[in-house]
Design a protein that fits this description.
The strands form two sheets. The chain has a five-stranded parallel β-sheet with strand order 7-6-5-8-9. It contains 13 helices and nine strands. Helix 1 crosses helix 6. By secondary structure, it is of the alpha/beta class. About 45% of the residues lie in helices and about 15% in strands. The N and C termini lie close together (about 10 Å). The longest helix is centred in the last third of the chain and has 27 residues. Strand 3, helix 5 and strand 4 form a beta-alpha-beta unit. The structure holds phosphoric acid mono(formamide)ester.
Length: about 325
């Protein structure tokens, strides 16, 4: 059995994604019943970029599973600078049963996975944020029921990691996914093509538009993200200034009025009220962002324990 990783949303099949989401729901209902990491087994958790939720939720997830979260500061480890990614992977793979990494290029985490010999989980790269999307899908399922056939609208920067992961993860789930973004912030063509392929295979659809109202019309879930992703700090004035290309895509109460009356509002956080979303929406009755944040814990326990189980099964003689 090949070693499995979770580097991008479509590393799971449709059925595996559903299985991981149902495992997450079971874990949420009985938080300390899954003890896959008892020992405690070590999971290495590396951060090359800022974090609050991801460090917190992975640390808690690993502890709940009976393991030990070995959190490594990327500024100290300097992966790929002080030594090669391959050598870091070889070292960590001897001491940890899994590696969780937040880093920059997708090529970096792919190289880690190529050499680690244990499952590697993407805790955010420039291209994808697949653990966040598992938590988001879990949240939509909790509030709106079965995912296939549901519509998720994302507004804002169509070229960022959240847009890419919403495209792949929602299409994989058989949902209708719509991205409203300016013409010069389109998703990467190969990721869009993959999302269209997944949607066609699983009964969903993909729409990319510059019309925010068309995107949210009758949607079951409306999502946005910061207009200034990590690594884009130098572009802050252009992205958040008075002439921001994203200003038309702000999620307001008026815009939410075009969605299904029961629609939920999602934001991976941290949020910037008055920019990508108004305070009235994120702090209002349709917002499920605190459930979404909590579900990082349950979804990550599910994907981590499932991957470790898969690896152990593959090592059986
Ligand atoms: N949503 C998310 O990944 O949060 P952090 O950047 O705080 O980890």
């Amino acid at each position: 059995m090949p070693l499995r990783h979770f580097l991008r949303d479509d590393d799971l099949t449709h059925d595996e994604q559903a299985l991981v989401l149902s495992r997450a729901a079971r874990i949420k209902a009985a938080p300390f019943t899954d003890r896959t990491l008892v020992g405690p087994e070590v999971v290495a958790v590396l951060f090359d970029k800022q974090t609050l939720r991801t460090q917190l939720s992975f640390s808690a997830a690993i502890a709940h599973l009976g393991g030990y979260p070995m959190v490594v500061d990327g500024k100290l480890a300097q992966v790929g600078v002080r030594e090669s990614i391959a050598d870091v992977a070889r070292v960590m793979g001897r001491e940890a049963v899994a590696i969780v990494w937040r880093t920059y290029g997708q090529d970096r985490i792919e190289e880690m996975a190529a050499y680690a010999q244990v499952p590697v989980i993407n805790a955010l790269t420039d291209d994808f944020h697949p653990c966040q999307i598992l938590a988001d899908l879990m949240t939509v399922q909790e509030h709106r029921g079965d995912l296939p056939g549901k519509t998720l609208a994302y507004l804002g920067d169509g070229a960022n990691n959240m847009a890419h992961s919403y495209l792949l993860g929602s299409a994989l789930a058989g949902m209708h996914v719509r991205v409203a973004t300016p013409a010069d912030h389109q998703p990467k063509p190969e990721i869009l093509a993959r999302a269209e392929e997944l949607a066609a295979a699983h009964g969903g659809s993909v729409l990319i538009t510059d019309d925010p109202v068309a995107a949210v019309a009758d949607a079951d879930a409306v999502a946005t993200d910061t207009w200034v992703s990590m690594g884009q700090e130098k572009e802050k004035d252009r992205r958040r200034g008075e002439t921001s290309p994203f200003a038309r895509f702000q999620v307001t109460t008026e815009l939410m009025g075009h969605a299904d009356p029961e629609a939920v509002f999602l934001h991976c956080l941290p949020a910037y009220r008055g920019y990508e979303v108004t305070a009235e929406v994120i702090d209002g009755p349709q917002s499920v962002v605190w459930d979404e944040s909590e579900n990082r814990l349950h979804a990550q326990k599910a994907i981590l324990s499932w991957l470790v189980e898969q690896h152990r099964a593959g090592e059986q003689p």
